[in-house]
Model the fold of this input.
Amino acid sequence: MNYHRLWLFLAASLVLLMLCAHTRWTEAGDNIEIWSEDSKGVERIYHCFWLTDAFPLRWSLNEKGVVDSDGKTYIDKNKVWVAINLAFEAWENVECSCLTVTGLDENDAECFTEISDVGLDLVNVITWLDTYDPPTGPTIAKGFNWSYVGPAIVLDGESRKISLNGDTITLSAEIYPDNTILHPGTTIDMDMTFNSSNPDFSYTLKANSDEYQVDIQTVATHEAGHLFGLSHTSMAFTGDDPATMRPHVGYGDVESQVNRRSPGPDEEAALVRWYPVQSDDLEEDTPCSWGSISGRVMHADEEPAGGVRVWAYDAGDTSQPKYETFTLSAWDAEVNSSNEVRREGEYTFSGVEPGQYYVCILPWLNGVPEEFVDDPELYNETTYYGAWYDIETDHADFETEVFDEFLMGSGAPDFDQDESFDLVEVKDGEIASNIDFITNAVD
Done:
């Protein structure tokens, strides 16, 4: 009888900020990642994702609904169910993605559960009563992923048992038929837990409200992104329309909260990248039109630049970047795969809407408070072991650069300057390739 390892990953948490307080840190990275052995026994970095055979993903809400620190219900489970379901639907409604989620119906008894703790039980639980690892202090919620760790295996009757800390489960043949390949990073369970010591959750928050409350739907949308494999974004802009995967929510900043109930273009692109709809499944009126941007970032000494942040701005609106990605590090499994030709320092924007873009690279100290730079838990693995692993070297210190070779110090690009930046044209079904950079390069 074969037993395989499973890894518990705290996908990420959402931190509560008072009003317009400054961001305490920026957590960044394309996707949730883990370390796992490849077929040769070498530790590599892998993305965490669901197999599409597991769709539709089922979730259940703890029957107590929203409770306070004494375990007393103050928002009924049916009202909470509606808010959580809207959060999942926001991701499910992303066009060109095959992701499907179901919480049944709020009138169906099976959509509620007595289970109160997160855990490896193949029940995807939403709860305010967790005792396993509940969020405390300013952390408003947490997402948990259980993902497979180990060389890829082919599932059959003898290889379905997965263990974690002495607990063993058997994967369903209905969801994972024989000959399904379980890759490192494959997620098989997810849970979401909220901070019951916060008495100010709301399911009816309006954009024009002046209430000091936390919107359940907004928080659940953010955490759901993690459960599907998305990491935090470093596009953590202030203002009324920040990214959904920004790692903080402003307490009392109601308009900002309400505007984060649906994923933005970068988050939609990430979902399409990992869970693309098959062409045979497209409805006639579904406009799935996208292209890609790719390139490589190198240092002046000809060493690859791994874990570098890359932004793409819509040329028609440069108020903030539209897409974000990161260059591959030497430890990424994609770089070391026998069937993929990827190199350290390469990056790809997938799922990009056709149009014209400005592409740039940015140093990590742009908007990231320096006192937190050495904490690897704030970043995904590729980002930390690429950009931060050599933080004391000159490789981590370079100027913001807009394609092609316009240097701008350490801040965000200034598109009001007089230079004529090179436009990158993205066409449907095509890759705008060779958008390359050399750090600190000058014409």
